[in-house]
Write a structure and sequence with these properties.
The chain is of the alpha+beta class. It has 1 helix and 5 strands, in the order βββββα.
Length: 68
């Protein structure tokens, strides 16, 4: 998997999308990291709501998702 920067949306965060996203480049979530927080948003609605996770919670989620 590689991560690619998403189109600029004017936010201060550096959003990236996984290379595993759909071929139409709209079927994925985007992630931005800052010290102490992982931000997640829908790539189809970049101005919409965002989730924020503490690093431990994000690691737990990824571990759970990898087992699915």
């Amino acid at each position: 998997m590689t991560l690619t920067p998403s189109a600029g949306d004017g936010s201060a965060l550096n959003w990236v999308k996984s290379s595993y996203s759909g071929s139409d480049n709209n079927d994925c979530v985007e992630v931005a990291t800052t010290p102490g927080t992982i931000h997640v948003r829908d790539s189809k609605n970049v101005q919409g709501p965002q989730l924020a996770f503490a690093p431990g919670a994000w690691a737990d989620f990824l571990s759970h998702a990898a087992r699915r």
